[in-house]
Amino acid sequence: MHKLLIANRGEIACRIIRTARAMGIATVAVHSDADGTAPHVRLADEAIAIGPAPARDSYLVAEKIIAAARATGADAIHPGYGFLSENADFADAVRGAGLIFVGPSGEAIRVMGLKDTAKAKMKGAGVPITPGYQGADQSLPRLERAAAMVGYPLLIKAVAGGGGKGMRAVQGKAEFTEALLSAKREAQASFGNDHVLLEKLITRPRHVEVQIFGDRHGNVVHLFERDCSLQRRHQKVLEEAPAPGLSDRLRETLGIAAVTAGMAIAYEGAGTIEFILDCDDLDEAGDPKFYFMEMNTRLQVEHPVTELITGQDLVEWQLRIARGEMLPLSQTGLEASDHAVEARLYAENPDTGFLPAIGKLQTLRFPTGPGIRIDAGVEEGGEVTPFYDPMIAKVIGHGPTRAAAIDNLVAALDATIVEGVTTNRGFLARLADHADFRAGDIDTGFIGRHLDGLLARPEPDERLVAIAAALLAAETSPGAGPFARHAGFRLNLPRRAFADLFTVDGGRIHTIAETTGEGWTIHGQTTAHHVIIRARAGNRVDALVDGQPLGAIVLLHPGHIEIRLAGVTHRFNRTAPRKAAAGPADGCILAPMPGRVLSLHVAAGDRVQAGDRLLVLEAMKMEHRLTAPFDGTVAALTASVNAQVSEGTLLITIEKAA
After folding, report:
1. pLDDT tens, position by position, 154-176
2. What is the pLDDT confidence band of residue 494, given thresholds at 50, 70 and 90?
3. In total, how many domains does the chain have?
4. How many of the other CB atoms lie within 10 Å of CB of 638?
5. Which helix (H) or strand (E) holds 131?
6. Distance in angstroms (rounded) separating the CA atoms of residues 41 and 52
7. What is the DSSP string of 19-83?
8. Which is catalytic among the residues 168, 298, 344, 571?
9. 611 and 564 assigned to the same domain
10. Is residue 121 part of a domain?
11. Which end of the chain is least crowded, N or C, by CB within 10 Å?
12. Quick check: is 508 catalytic?
């Protein structure tokens, strides 16, 4: 292998290029029209265009990828994850073209790529599988009978793909048909395959997966386990290694089961065996029973946490195995130590149901230092487009203990600055710092149970209000700034300044800032705090508040000041916030993001009740239902099925009932 083409984009392309360069392997980047100036294009030794922005016209066209390899003289292709990484036909086509495919055989991908065939294979190998239906008969009557046999609640799951697409939880018979049709539509749109399987819904599951590697010499090892239980809509949000709270016996059993799975298919390369643990059903030793869920025949998004606890470069392992080498280490040579936790930083808005966001990254800054790793594929000034996954970066905390790793992750999220695009940064920080997460009390329903609290705006912290007032007072010169309406000079008395800060929802915080020998005394409504700003380095402020040290991240803007501390963000406006623009309360239903109108469920003149479904919008291959905000009548319908709409487009107008 002398030249490697990376059939991907974003942070995983950058990640692969860095390891290849360290190994002395030349690299080729491919890019769509939307990615011509992307970081992975500049980082590679050479780059080649492969088509228009939509992935179906570029990154998903196998012929273009192989042609690009031939044109550049590349002798190997790394698929990354997503796109063509689990496409068996692509793997076969690469090898058929005389090139090295950095991944498993097409046969292994086929067997494990469909959940029904994978479960059958695992059952034959003695790996436990979840009770359910994995049959080929996909007719509605057969699936209805199968659902009755499995019993409710149950889970409908697309046999192809992953990421929660084509997956629906069904609580009872009455909702089965609608959920089935919706899952099939989404599966067809995402994977070109609408087949589903049914399985028992485990009501308090944990998602634990095991990283494995196999070589062409018949060796398979595991690199320990990860916990990916913190999910939203079946998509991972936080991942960590090792999984907290498992007995040594269960860890060993999971590792043996994962290696058994890899041996059963003569697996070659990096793969992940995913298990579901039933927290409500324990075995005789008191451990949760576990079942094989699926296998990802590629490198995982969350592979950095495994790298951090093992000290191994998993991309290097992939490249060495693809060259025909034996595994770098045997099972007895592998050790795990320390702890790592990863958060997926996305361009999305938690306050609007986590709808994806697009736009220009006007400011993008990440922290550096011990215990922090950032894997990013975008940069300041770049664009988050509607064409691809809206991930900005993976932020990883690492430390000798789980508590230390979480502390480092929360601090890293606090210090991450993204402007121009709405992100889930604050949500991730609150999630990682949640007391129950820190205690290891986790399952896949964690986010849903705690969502209201995770989205709630915290009450202003008096210490942070004091720091905000002190910083504003310190930067204000006489005759300018927020304190200008009151003179600061008083004969033989400390200089005094007044300010009205406002919370995001309009609450007024009146303060008086008074100079002292050192720093400021900040008088609030009923309390006073003495603040000394000891040091400022970039956005980091170290202060003494009433003699107690307090370090925070501070962002000063013309209109507001933002202070982040221990995962909590407080924003104070310098002027009273303007009245929010009219929204659904006025009956105007707007497109929350760019997308395609998948289906309409009302017509002009229809009467609707609050919560009734109006239409379904498809964006980034996910279905988003828009519902009526109140009882009323559909006064106007400007949307049409299959229409492409931009963010903010008026779709439906509802006249409120009298």
Report:
1. 999 999 877 678 999 999 999 99
2. low
3. 5
4. 13
5. none
6. 16
7. HHHHTT-EEEEEEEGGGTT-HHHHHSSEEEEEE-SSGGGTTT-HHHHHHHHHHHT--EEE--SST
8. 298
9. no
10. no
11. C
12. no
